[in-house]
Amino acid sequence: MSVMRKGFVVSGGQVLFALLSVAAGILYARKLGPDGMGQFELFRTTRSIATTLFTLGLGMSAIYHINTRKVPLEQAATSIFKISLLTWAVLAVLLTALIRGFPAFFGDVLPPVAAAYAFGVGGNAAMCLLRPVLMARLEARKFALVNLAMPASLLICGAAAALLGLLNTAVAMVLLSVSALASLTVLILYLRPHISLSRPIDWPLVGRLAGYGLPLMAGDVLIVLAGSVAVLLLRYLKPDAFEAVGLFTRATAVAALISLVPSAVRPLLYSNWAGMRGEVRSRQVEMAARMAFTFGVAVAILIALFGRYLIVLLYGEAFEPAAAALDILVLGTPFVALSTVSISLLCSDGRALVVTCILAATVTIVTHVAWLLIPDLGIQGAAISSLCGNAFTALAGIWQCSRLFQINPLNCLLLRSSDLRAVGRILMPGPAAGPPSPSPVAGVAGDRREAALGLGTDCR
């Protein structure tokens, strides 16, 4: 399978992952209601943050060391596997203590439920540590199946619990653990030939992985915080109930539907631009930006017109107040689409540090705006903070691209007829051979630049 075809497999897997996640969100929202869904989403957000912090970027660093430094696969996989077991145990204990120690924030959770949830978060961290090894070997199909095991099991188990009349917030927390363990089980089955239980941990290698991975982790943490800080502050500043979190997260879920297409093509943009330079790349970036911006504006108009009905259709009338946040979030759709293009270009050129600085400023802006507005405006204040963050990320990214790559921002807005003809040529190529595919390290598998794109890092 060619690198480009593997990129399509990964991209298709990401879209299917998102669709299964949406289906699971519909099921759980309808059964748990705004308050229960709010608590459930708070624990999903906590899992995402804890996983990102405790994986230390080791998995993404392993891609670089296996592909570029030629570290033997068995040596890297075995060491990471055994480190993941230690991480699993530490994270499970600490997270259980955290949940039990802050009931005002997390709610009243029974000790067995808290322990089961924390155990699953540890398993999720282990999965995220090991999963990049599949990408290092360009195992695109296996990588996609590991990803899909999580939302598929969450949906299937949730449906079974709902049919039995057992689906509540506590059961949903346990099913989060089941979904993570299902994905981890599939992953270990694929990696089992490369893991040697008799081989000791290679601590010098772990040190090198950590030294290279910690900068990558910084970018991942910022990506997670940019999407999570509004939820955390909404819970902290509106502590009376989880309803506000439930409503806001359903609004963000509907708004996120529009990012499916940009997210799907992002790995392909990255792979393609990593092998390009100069004027050809600049013009292609401008075309991609025009198409992304036009797509964002069109979908934003549709959601602005029908978003309230879509929320009710998907989640039920209890979630209709979420439309107040969605009306604001939808304004950020064109910015999200533009930032996909700019971040892809910066990462493909090895500018991960630039992306990290942009994301750090984004988190700062979202935090300050949310802190100021949530006490008075509630979910609308949280939505405004997210809108500000999306706008800043897009504008800062395009500005950096114009500065570094001679991209004209004015050429990134209005779609042209030549763009449509170019897309037709891509979808229906002639007999002539196209440009050579980028190398696996620069393309789908990636190196340290891939982390800023978030390929395969969605470990929620």
**Which consecutive residue ranges, at least 5 long each, have pLDDT under 50?**
432-460
Structural class: mainly alpha
Summarize the main sheet: none
Number of domains: 1
Radius of gyration equals: 22 Å
Mean pLDDT: 83
State the distance separating the first and last CA atoms: 29 Å
In DSSP terms (H or I, runs of 4 or more residues), the helix count works out at: 18
User: What percent of the residues sit in helical stretches (DSSP H or I)?
Assistant: over 70%
Can you tell me about this structure?
The protein is mostly helical. The chain has one domain. It is 79% helix and 0% strand. It is built from 18 helices and no strands. Helix 10 (243-256) packs across helix 12. It is globular. 54% of the residues are buried.
Can I get a quick summary?
The chain contains 18 helices and no strands.
Would you spell out the secondary-structure blueprint of this structure?
Elements: H1 3-55, H2 58-67, H3 73-101, H4 103-106, H5 111-130, H6 132-136, H7 140-163, H8 169-191, H9 203-237, H10 243-256, H11 260-273, H12 278-315, H13 323-329, H14 333-348, H15 352-377, H16 379-405, H17 417-427, H18 448-453
Helix pairs in contact: 1-5, 1-7, 1-8, 1-9, 1-10, 1-11, 2-9, 3-5, 5-8, 7-8, 9-15, 9-16, 10-12, 10-13, 10-16, 11-14, 12-13, 12-14, 13-16, 14-16, 15-16
